[in-house]
Description:
Number of domains: 1
CATH architecture: 3-Layer(aba) Sandwich
Helix content: 40-55%
Number of helices: 10
CATH class: Alpha Beta
Number of strands: 5
Order of helices and strands: HHEHEHHEHHEHEHH
Distance between the termini: 28 Å
Strand content: 5-15%
Largest sheet: 5 strands, parallel
Strand order of the largest sheet: 2-3-4-1-5
Amino acid sequence: MKKLPIGIQSFKSIREDNYYYVDKTPFVKKLVDNGKYFFLSRPRRFGKSLFVDTLKQAFLGNKQLFEGLYLEKNWDWSKKYPVIHIDFGGRNVKDITVLKKWIIEQLKEHLNFYSIEIEEKEDYGFLFRSIILKLYQEYKNPVVVLVDEYDKPILDNIENTEKAVEIREVLKDFYSVLKASDQYLKFVFLTGVSRFSKVSIFSGLNQLNDITLDSEFATICGYTQSELETVFKDRLEGVNLEELKYWYNGYNWLGE
């Protein structure tokens, strides 16, 4: 038997360490074929972070991780794209000072990873745009931007309206860099648990396609009945599927 991927958010770990994996890679191809800017909202523990990492590995061109999956033969592996991956899920943000520092820390990690130099490193907006430009110039390919848990800093302070608004304004300023950098971007994908209006946090990013309730992407996260019964077949012996349905079935986003 393979291992159950409980809490595993790394696509690389799942593929290399013998975990079960429900093939969601057709959605990677579908997204890229249908647009450039996407937003997805799902509850916690639904696999958003794993899907974000799957996108990352595909754009980085790590073909070996996709052997036997849909994307292996349905992706142009000759092209590799620089990826900026920001994850707000790893820290409790108490105020805008912590948030700005957290953004800058994550951006600086990309400087090290890609071995690039930026002189001004303490202005998060300038640093973000500079990294996009530098990567575009160095790699001769447009940049992919992936943002996981885009809303967590706000939700960390949701009971303190004043702080939440301050944090929202910093995030709005940060995300506004994307619109200003459009010509240098290949693909942008943001996830979170809430659906704040585009006006309140994505000001100016009018082209952001919200696929949260798009029936074509209803099963982008989570398992369908058929996926459960095929991928996890060897784990279901003696399991009462009706009882399983009673506890876990019924999540639906205007699709299967």
